[in-house]
Design a protein that fits this description.
mainly alpha; 151 residues; elongated
């Protein structure tokens, strides 16, 4: 489980970074796409934060599952905002991100439920770094696309 979640989170971070910092900069983003990306990021970070900062309980588990479902639906809705002439490479990256998203959410849930984050502090720190990278990315998305790029 450790190896699987580590590989999926690292792959997710690399693909997301490539999409955010290289592919999206080649084209214009609509305000709807910008806002949608911010909402997706905040929703994903909320769900992941539950596993990192709380101890598993049955009621929190239901909250996690509900918000994870919303997060998965939320990223798919982005297809409505993408332009029709989007590059093939970007479409492939998005498809891979769509597959990795629920896998990561499941891995975080399973690790949280098994108490893995509590028993392995090094692994918890690795996931905390992933969360911090996510916060940095959402912050970048807000600042770059709404203020820097617009100028």
């Amino acid at each position: 489980m450790v190896l699987f979640i580590t590989i999926t989170t690292v792959l997710h971070a690399c693909l997301f970074g490539y999409d955010e910092y290289f592919l999206k900069r080649k084209r214009e983003l609509s305000q709807a796409e910008i806002n949608s990306g911010i909402l997706d990021g905040i929703l994903f970070l909320f769900v992941v934060s539950l596993t990192i900062f709380t101890t598993f309980s049955e009621s929190l588990g239901y909250i996690y599952i509900g918000f994870s479902g919303l997060s998965c639906i939320s990223i798919v809705k982005n297809e409505f905002f993408y332009p029709k002439d989007i590059e093939r490479v970007e479409r492939i990256v998005h498809a891979l991100l769509y597959v990795l998203h629920p896998l990561i959410l499941y891995c975080f849930y399973a690790s949280w439920k098994m108490g893995f984050f509590v028993s392995d502090m090094t692994y918890w720190m690795l996931q905390l770094c992933y969360l911090i990278l996510g916060v940095k990315t959402v912050t970048y998305h807000i600042v770059y696309w709404n203020y820097i790029h617009r100028k």
